[in-house]
């Protein structure tokens, strides 16, 4: 052995890398799987299919088949990116189970999107500093709410928008603070706005998240620049599309983006105030509270309280903005608006509870935990059980399923239907120009041109709750109902669906 070998220091023992902690992954995925199973259970039976769902699904069909952005004239009522995303996957469930009602197949295609939303709620909870149990509570509070198990099943543009804005928040709160994360946050926010324009009001919450997650002098200006770049580069495609088609500005003989915006902001009739008894907004609020008063009331209180907590502000600012928008008098409040509210209220509840428990000491802490558990067991659980049980057992679409089956068995004819059944008829082989969405009979000149004889050119009208909901406001529909006879009916009560043969006057 040489002298050098004697004095050479021994090689350090290899350091074993610590195994990566996968607890968050397994916990979030496990809880999401449970909620998703409940969401999928009876998704075809509850809730009742709505005309809005059928419309978005038919627009996705138009994209799939190269028919443009809608199955009728696209008039820029909403940005199209949500149903473009829906078009990517809505064909698969119907291919596997062709007997499904078209809307039911579309709902199944929404499940991956809802899974992403649930996971993002957990991720955001952890990134704003929640302990694991609080992040899990936020996910479960969101996912087990009867409102989510009802409206989360439906095909709504708001579901796409809220998932993308949650993704923007998660990226803005990225612990690694890479510049591309902030640019991706801007792009995700733009995709959210192009999925449903009303999500635009939550952008200040993403800006708050960027502010809190960056250093004042070094990364903050670059972060905001990257965010703005992603937002503008993706967001500009929509007005650019309208400009290239000559449909950006209002004019004679064509639809326009700015004309649609003007209608939405100024011409559309409002829902009244939520505080005004008998108003549309008040009735809507009561319908939401009927499904889940716990999340809405506790979430509102937690949102206001959470504004005082710095780490919760990205979440509570979003919730507070949504509350203020709902409270404005005279504005239009759609039924699906609550979809945007739910994840932020759930996170606010979990965050405020986690903060409160972290401030308790000694004997107070187990007492507080015990009270919270008792409250959950004897107040929340019984209320949610009723709503969730109905979501898992009710069959509210039996009449639609029977009607679709009947129409598939008939030879093609000129038929007026609601948009729930439009795609079922087209899939059954009816020429798409002879299946007419009732709403367009009086409101689309292109449809009127197809029917030179007016209502007499229609063979059948399918009278559904959606078609009957505004009696007298659509003259041609009213005339069809008056000059037709029932030949088959399905369901009962207010939910009855009638197949009516048009009785044409002798020429």
Q: How would you portray this structure in words?
A:
There is one protein chain. With 507 residues, the protein is mainly alpha-helical. It has two domains: 23-393, no CATH class; 398-502, 3-Layer(aba) Sandwich (Rossmann fold). Helix content is 60%, strand content 5%. The protein has helices spanning 3-7, 23-40, 51-64, 81-89, 91-96, 102-109, 111-127, 132-143, 146-151, 157-172, 179-195, 203-212, 220-235, 237-244, 257-267, 280-306, 313-327, 338-358, 364-393, 398-408, 419-427, 445-450, 465-468, 475-482; strands at residues 415-417, 435-437, 460-463, 484-490, 497-502. Strands 2-1-3-5-4 form a five-stranded mixed beta sheet. The chain starts with a helix and ends in a 5-residue tail after the last strand.
**Counted beta strands:** 5
In angstroms, what is the radius of gyration?
27 Å
Order of helices and strands: HHHHHHHHHHHHHHHHHHHHEHEHEHHEE
Number of domains: 2
What structural class results from the helix and strand content? mainly alpha
Q: In this structure, how is the largest beta sheet organized?
A: 5 strands, mixed
Q: Trace the largest sheet across and list its strands.
A: 2-1-3-5-4
What share of the residues lie within helices?
A: 55-70%
Strand content: under 5%
Relevant terms:
507 residues, mainly alpha, Rossmann fold, 2 domains, five-stranded mixed beta sheet, 24 helices, 5 strands
